[in-house]
Specification:
The structure is a single chain. The protein has 111 residues and is mainly α. It has 2 domains: 39 residues, no CATH class; 60 residues. It is built from 4 helices and 3 strands. β2 and β3 form a beta hairpin. α2 crosses α4. Bound molecules: zinc ion (ZN). Zinc ion (ZN) binds next to α2 and α3.
Length: 111
Amino acid sequence: MKEVDMKNSAPHSRKLLEYLQNGDFQIEFSWINKSTLAVIDPLREKILINLALHLVETDVHEYLHLQYPKMDEKTICQRTEKMLARTSRKDIQLLGERLIELILTQEENLN
Ligand SMILES: [Zn+2]
């Protein structure tokens, strides 16, 4: 893994990075369910992050901003929640997988 220089970062940011790098806790990216963004499994010292759901939520939120440029932030958040509630687990998983593919493609293009 690439070393990150955080000499000039805030103490809490450095602490988070140390936490990520020292390997005390394992971080895994995995589908959980359509309403859980992450869970901690203290027994296995593992953090599970539902990356697909994070990405779909962000994507829906920004999509709504584009569709309704004059809508206020609070309403966009409420609409995002409603839209996600109406989207099936399978569709969220599919959309999430597509967004992850896009991330990986962009990473490849950067290198
Ligand atoms: Zn917003």
